[in-house]
Amino acid sequence: MKNLKNKDKSLKEQNNENLVTEDTGSKDSNITVTDTNESGTDLPITQDNKNVENNEGFTEQKVEDNIKSEDLAETEKSGSLDTAFGIFISDNKKKEEILPYEKSEDTENKTKKQDIFSSESDDKNDSLFNTPDEDKTRKKKDGKKKNDSQKSGSKNENSFVVFSKKYWWTYLIVLAVVIAIVVTVTVLVLTKDYINIYEAEDFSNIDKGNIYVLKKDITVEGDLTIDVPYPINFNGHILNVKGNLTVNAEKEGVIYYGSEKDGKEKTVKSKLIAGSLTVNAVKSDILFRVPVESGAINVTASSVSSEKNLSSLNITLSAINISLNGTAGQDGGSITILGSTECQVNTVLSEIKAVNTNLKINQNAVVKNITLENSNLDIYGSAENITGGNIVHFRQGAYAVSVKDAKTLKSYDYSLPDYIDGNIEIVNVITLSAPWNITFTQINGGLYCLFPSVSNATGYEITVDGKDPFVFSYEADNSTVAVNLTDYINTAGEHTVTVKAVSDKENFVSSASITASYVFTSKLSIPSAIKTYEENGRVLITFNKVSFADLYKITVTGTDGTENYFTVNATSDTVQSFDITNYIQNGAGLYGIKVTSVSNYPDYYAESDDAVLSFTKYEKIQAPSLVLTSSELNITASANSLAFEIYENGILTAVTKNSVYTLKNSESGTVITVKAIGHGYYTESDFAQITVP
Asked: What is the pLDDT of residue 638?
């Protein structure tokens, strides 16, 4: 057997060059990588299959469990290998062709040929152990088999069938290889933007993707500078820079540290550790989704958001928008906020200093010490000491031990800290009451929203269906506010209306909002261009399609005054057409017809008014029966006959109501024809004919 060799390349190197895989943390996970043979063809190599390359560059599969021991022994003896399929074949079965197989002249002195895939091979080898009679019998059977094969022209086919039965496992091998290739290509496509990080130097691979992915814990003894700051997926690992970690960015967009989506990775072990952390990214949005431990943190960005803890004695954040959600700082440490239009705190902090910033402490947030320099504070949560500031908005429900040296303290609904120190202007701010009892009504064809007025309100902010709000100015107490919504609610369906009281009076602020629902019902249009007509003995009704109609109710009033109605489903056709023949069965006369548009959503679309028309049904009178007695013609009239037209040899001789008529020409051979004349909804009959004998 030929010796097989493995590539010298390690699994790690193969991963770096060919494939990026996520570390799932499972010991049983099947890691798929790609390797390249000498011909340049990518071959999949899996840990489960344990493929290796032979000297010709093809992949051989271990199939010892599927090969009979005698076949394997013969293979090892002959040393022949079919590398195209990974099948071991003996030398006398190396190619699919007929090879000479000679016996000595002392036995049969004949030359025979053998197909490597033919069952003849096994039979001839078995002949060494047959008796002479058995051998003759075998030869006769062989001859018959050969003749049958020649007749069907299926010798090669028979060989293929034998091969398929004997080496069925080769197809499984080929199938497995194909599946492995497809999976490998799929993984490569899905991970094409990833840059795997095995060591700090890998952060310089900026031309291979858009996301760094830590494949193991990384420790840097000195400093680390990342000049192209792609997002870093920590992938459950730790990045530890014992010196200074500096990130420089000039691009716009989001740079996250942790995972692509918060909560979607193994964050138990993920962590960023640095002697100091500096981020220079004026145009970028920075998201911390892993805990950060650093001696100092200095971030300049467009926005900063921390969703995990930032642990540092000295944190400086400079950004337009800042959101702190994980705990930040340490006992005795401080956070400095510079130039933030809006900095929201939703966590527990030790000390925060705001410079040229609008700082907001949300409900349930707690800050021990707050220092304000040329800044404003809006506090809904809790604090111990608040020092300085232009305006401190002390909201209802807020708490503070003391407020010191602020210019203005606005107390909302009489909420105040425990102590006020310094020359501080105190302004009481009242929150307007929220509107209530919102109703809707139709006035002169318009839709109005009604509610009682709110004291000290100068207007009401109205929002319909979540769209841009508008302010309805109205300043009057103890009255009813009526807001015309006709232009805002004009489509059928359920609509939401949100109302908030506002005021431009000093020391009054907007109320909470109240929302009400209104179901707008639209009346469907009346069917237009309605008409009836007869076609091939059927009575049809047609009209134009009505928008939003799902059904049509058709009511037919018979000649006896009885009403019958039925419904039909609307079609997609522009013109609706329906057969009403079965409802026009009361005989000749005038039928009344009404068509009404109907919706499956009557709460939104009410039935239309009726479209009304009539249909006149006419009936032909049956031809009269004639009896000729001498020169008298007896006419038996059918129902609804008014008179009779009598013709002798085609000439009209009389129009009469009488049922007995004396012929003017009673000569033999005279042809008499008569038709009944109808009236109203009954038309004249066909001619009846009789000949004078």
From this structure: 80
In this predicted model, what pLDDT tens digit does every residue of 101-114 receive, in sequence order?
333 334 344 333 33
What proportion of the chain, given as a percentage, has pLDDT over 70?
70
Which residues, in sequence order, are bridge partners of residue 195? 212
Burial class from Cβ neighbours inside 10 Å (0-12, 13-18, 19+) for residue 650 reads exposed
Q: Among positive and negative, which fits the CA dihedral 566, 571, 577, 582? A: negative
Which tokens hold the place of 149? Answer: 């094969």
For residues 260 and 254, give the distance between their C-alpha atoms in angstroms, rounded to a whole number: 10
Q: Is the pTM of this model over 0.85?
A: no
Q: Give the C-alpha separation, 144 to 151, whole Å.
A: 11
Strand partners, 355: 338, 373
Name the residue among 325, 288, 318 with its Cα closest to residue 303.
318
- By CB atoms closer than 10 A (0-12, 13-18, 19+), residue 25 is exposed
Over residues 40-65, the mean pLDDT reads 36
User: Angle of helix 132-152 relative to helix 155-166, nearest 10 degrees?
Assistant: 110
The answer to whether the CB of 87 falls within 8 A of the CB of 170 is: yes
268 φ/ψ sector (left φ>0, alpha ψ -120 to 50, else beta): alpha
User: How far is it, in rounded angstroms, from Cα 433 to Cα 454?
Assistant: 6
d(CA 274, CA 668): 134
